[in-house]
Specification:
60 residues; 2 strands; two-stranded antiparallel ribbon; mainly alpha; 2 helices; single chain
Length: 60
């Protein structure tokens, strides 16, 4: 679905088509996060108190 929406935007150049594409992309990201929370009980890579792990920089 996202690929079709992107092709639509590329052919028309309309902002509304781009926003439709971004909405589909955002929904897919949200679904992926929800599956991670359901499977692991939390978002992947997030520690309590908002700390986020990063393999190259330690904790941020």
């Amino acid at each position: 679905m996202g690929e079709e929406t992107w092709k639509q935007f590329m052919s028309t150049g309309r902002v509304t088509d781009y926003l439709a594409y971004k909405m589909i992309e955002h929904m897919a990201d949200s679904e992926q996060k929800a599956r991670g929370v359901a499977k692991h009980g939390a978002e992947s890579g997030v520690d309590r108190n908002g700390a986020v792990s990063d393999t190259h920089r330690g904790l941020r």
